[in-house]
Each structure stands twice: as structure tokens, then as C-alpha cells.
Amino acid sequence: MRLPDPHRSRVVLIGASRYSDPALPDLPAVERTVADLAGLLTEPLYRLVPESHCTVLLDDGDLRTVGDRLRSAVAEAEDLLLVYYAGHGLVAGRRHALYLALPDSRWEAPEFNSLEYDKLRDAVLDSPAETKVVVLDCCFSGRAVGDSLSGDTGRIDRLEVAGTYVLTSAQRDQVALALPDEEHTAFSGRLIRLLREGVVGGPELLTVDDLYRRLSAIMAAEGLPTPRNRGAGTASSIALGINRAFGATAGPELRRRHTAAVEQGRSGDWTGAAALLREIVDEQTRILGAEHEDTLRGRQSHAHSLGGAGSPVEAAGLLRRLLAEQLRLLGPDHEDTLRTRQFLAVNLGEAGHREEAVGMLRVLLADRGRVLGTEHPHTLRTRHLLARNLAFTDGREEALALLREVVAVRERLLGAEHPHTRRARADLAGVSHVREVR
Question: How far apart, in whole angstroms, are the C-alpha atoms of residue 180 and residue 150?
């Protein structure tokens, strides 16, 4: 069971909600369904693929355009290819083949102006993607997992090697439903809800097979058309998303472990803390997503613990990369972004780059004073660290002045015996002694 590589995967969402043929009623729920599914699959925290890798073809009546864009995505997919269709399913020809209606399709003669399922299937099977998933939300979609899926023995063998999974909203001769009081189609609406809310008590990742079994139970219980499926190879084990109900349960436990590991480092065991935090970050990335705030915070603590364990150069490299992501995701004034800047400066100083550390801390001091106020504990901590780094350069006089300010404010706010006050007073005495000796 695994999540696909988002950068090597592609999603194609095809939907037809409006039709020119009076015999084919419009399906307004399809428009909302496709839009919400696209947003869900590309949502930054839980995305299956980046937005640029999700092709949306909604109410495009040009069969050639649909085919060209489908083939383009099919050719680019290397890990997962997911192709989804919502609209009217039509049956025609001597073989009673399945056709996927487009806005200009004709109910009586879909062969000439609709997307033939067999052609879509062939395009999917020709993709270099390791795993191929086709989801059909339309009437008669169950025909896609009947005899027409395989075509011949050679096609069956090829399907098994390719690792393809087909999930349909209805049985071979059933209609799919769009209920009048629901904003999505019946099948896709329940699929969207499972992806958005998760399955309480379910696994960490939701595979396409998990979704099929859950959808079957839900739709049967509600008296709705039941879905069908057919899979080959390892396709059934590909995950289409993180189980968000699992993440909601795991998140607090991961935060507790994170806090405990940070305290272990502060107690002196930075090496042990770094090992624990590395494991926690791996789990946060897998369960919550790489861009979740908890994951970013875990990376911050892990990097800083490496510095405490004696690897400030490695810590600074990790913190630089983290800072670039936090600036993009959280913004420059978020406390986590400001803290990463401070940790980066500290580790640069410990690595011997005192001048660079001093420059960073000067800017950070101004920003923290602006955002938090000049007497906030975090601002005072930055002023203290700036003084300590200045003491290793030619800025000892400035360091003394800053430390006197820190001691005075902390004595007033925290008391003379508070650990932070005592630490600042000890540093002040140390810098004063060095100046006298010189």
C-alpha cells in the first residue's frame, strides 16, 4: 500500500453536464462534482497530484480536443494515471458498446460524436504509467468491467501486466443517479465524502479497493445502484488519498511524541532526540502530508536537534530548505517562520559563520519587535542570541549593551532568579570579564 508520486502522476477528469440533444437531459450536478473532485485531488495539504498535473475537461464537446488532451496526460504519466468520467453513458452498435456522452452527443447515434469507452481503455492501457485507474460515473458503466474490458486474451494478459483498476458507479444495465436534493452525483458525491472526511477506524491510506468496498456498503445500504470493479496486478493497492479520519486521530499523538522528543533534547540528549524526531517527521509526512504545519514544525525541531547533537552545518542546510517552504506556505511573519530564521542563525553561528549569523539576527530582531513587541519573550531571546554572537566578533561593546537591556527587562518581567534572567546575567558577566582581560 502506497501513495503515488505526485510529480510522476497525472489525473484526467472528464465531465459533461450540458447537452444539445433534447433526448439527453442536462446533469447540473456533474459540473459541481468535477470541480470539487479536482479541488480535492489537488488540495495542497493532501493532494494526489499538483494542480498542473490535473487535466479538467468539463463540457468540452470537441471529441478531437478531448482525445488530444487525454493522450497528452496518458503519455506523461509514469506512476499513477487516474482517468475519471461523469455524464451520460450510452449504449449502441451490434456489440452494445459503451459510449461516454459529450455535450454534442446524440442519444440515437452516439458512435459518431461520443467518446467510445473502448478507445479510452486502449489509450489508458498504452500509458507508461505503472498503475492505471479508470473511474466511470455514468449509466451502464458496469459494461466497462464486463467482456468489453478485455476484448481478447492478449488484452487480458496486457491488463494484468499493466496493473489497471476500473471502478464503475453502476452495474451493466443500471442507470447512475443524481439525486435532486444533492449537489453531487450519487456515486461521486459519496466518493468525495470518503476522500474528504475519511473512514473512522479505517487504514492510514485509502486504496482504490478500500474505496470500492466502502462505497459498495454505503450505496447498498441507501438503496442506490451498487458499484462494480475489476483490478489486476498491484493496482488495487495504490492509495488515492490519506485517510483523513486516521490523520485526525494520529495528529494529536504525533504532537505528543514531538513535544516529548524536544524535551529530551533540552534535557541534554540531543542525539536521541534527533533520532526520534526523524521518525516522527517521516510519519507526519506520510499521514498528515509534507506541507502540514505539524510536519513543517517537526522538520524544524529535527534540524535544530541535529545542531544540538554537534552537526550545525547539516542543521543549517535543512533549516535553509525548510525556511524557503515556510515563507511560501506560512508567510514571513508566522511564528514558525520566525523561529526557523532564529534556529538557522544559531546553527550558522555554531558552525563558525558568526558574521552571517549576526546579520540574520539583526533583521530578525527588528521583525520580531514589529510583530510581537520589543519586550516579548521571543524578541528578548533574539536580542540575547544577537549579543552572544556579537561577543565572538568585534562587537563586544554592542553585546554588553544588549545584554544589559535583556537583564533589566527580564528582571522586571520575570524576576531576578528566573532561569532566563540568570542565563543573561551569566553571559553579561562572561563578556565583561573577557573585555577586562583584554
Answer: 35
State the pLDDT at residue 234. 66
Cα dihedral angle (142, 144, 146, 147), rounded to 10 degrees? 150
Q: How far apart are the first and last CA of the chain?
A: 65
pLDDT at 151: 38
150 Cβ contact partners less than 8 Å away, ≥ 6 residues apart: 156, 159
Round to whole Å and give the CA distance between 127 and 125. Answer: 5
Task: Decide: 214 and 176 in contact? Cβ < 8 Å.
Answer: no
What does the alpha-carbon distance between residue 335 and residue 338 come to, in Å, rounded to a whole number?
A: 5
The answer to whether 48 and 82 have CB atoms below 8 angstroms apart is yes
Q: pLDDT (tens digit, 9 = 90+) per residue, 70-113?
A: 999 999 999 999 999 999 988 886 677 889 999 999 988 888 88
Separation between Cα atoms, residue 192 and residue 196, nearest integer Å? 6
Order of all β-strands in the sheet with 80-86: 54-58, 10-15, 80-86, 131-137, 164-168, 228-231
CA distance 111 to 89: 12
Sign of torsion over alpha carbons 37, 39, 44, 45:
negative
| Residue among 380, 372, 387 nearest 418 (CA) | 380
d(CA 317, CA 306): 11
Question: What DSSP state is assigned to residue 291?
Answer: T
C-alpha–C-alpha distance, residues 269 and 254, integer Å? 20
Nearest Cα neighbor of 303 from 345, 356, 246 is: 345
